[in-house]
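Service request form, structural biology core

Requester: graduate student, group of Dr. S.
Request type: structure prediction, single chain
Budget code: on file
Notes: please return the result as structure tokens.

Sequence provided:
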Amino acid sequence: MTEILLRGRVLTFHDEPLEGEASTDTYAYIEDGGLLIRNGKIVALDDYSALRAGEGRNVEVVDHHPHLIVPGFIDCHIHYPQMQVIGSYAGALLEWLDKYTFVEEQKFANQGHPERIASAFFDELIRHGTTTAAAYCSVHKASVQAFFTEAHKRNMRMVAGKVMMDRNAPSGLLDTPQSGYDETKALINEWHGKGRQLYAITPRFAPTSTPEQLEMSGGLVREFPQLHVQTHLCENMAEIAFVAELFPWSRDYTNVYEHYGLLGPKTLLGHCIHLTDAEIGAIANSKSVAVFCPTSNLFIGSGLFDLGRLKKSNVRNALATDVGGGTSYSMLRTMDEGYKILNIQGQRYHPLRSFYQATLGNARALSLDGVIGSFKPGAEADCVVLDARATSAMRVRMETIETLVEELMLLQTMGDDRSVAEVYVTGKASKSTLT
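Core staff response, request fulfilled:
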């Protein structure tokens, strides 16, 4: 039996804080908190002194004061094959895909390349405090094998899948409806539920899949209803026009996925920027998740995610980096850009709400509430230790900080990987082991 008692200022959420809500019913904050972890799971959260006098009496203590301990960050949309695409100059989505992304992803057919990138990818996640991600692999089966092998070795909970794409891409990135189905099914049988690994059925997006492939993707959903589904939706106006040409019978872009049975409570729809009212209704009725990717939306010039409009229709939402269209692996940087996108539209993104979203909110979006994203007893003990004085500029600003909310705002405005003092994956320190 392995046990550890983490001491520090501890923050965890029970529910989504609403703008202007000052009550603590939605979160727990303990100034001198203790987090007791046994065999990789949360046993108890309480005042440090109470835990030390009780269950944590003979347990090893790691004191992280004055730092803040929060649940590990969760990223709901990221492309691991795009590590070497970040910061590529292009005017818009389709140009960016053709000129850089598809070129880069073809390298995953080369022996040793998927393994090297997977190792570097997980190092970056840990460095930035992200302990779970919903990730796209490339079309190559080897890319998925490398991804899950590395995640399993590090005991990190991941959701991922091989992209299926059988048209409108270079020949080196194309599968067929049958091979996409067969390889996906084989990977599901090998990896889903192995350790902490979860498989996501992943048709890249409607422009790169024929009706036959989308039909077979829907067949996989019917065969494996417990799995996640991930794809892209309404990111760019040219993309939407292209979908209308490819599927002239469809009412709209969302209707394509609806027609093939790809919407549902475990479906993650990346971007969702340019939606009609009918599309919002279909997403809400299916309980699918609209994923907000702020740094990507700004960098590629796709548009502004309208969170307020979606929430009025009870659309579930998540937050994500979307590396490599996104420009940072950091959920702190992602919160910052999300704040700006919403603020420019006259919407507030309170720091309690954004930290909720990056932890419990994203866990709920992944249907993993109670498993990750909080310090609820029995949850997996993924934690990140944050230092609001990590840089000289932050230290100067902290001299005037008086409240937790002000500190969270500072962390999401000026923080990055330097603010991540330590990361625990199922109760084991991970950042300190990086070379």
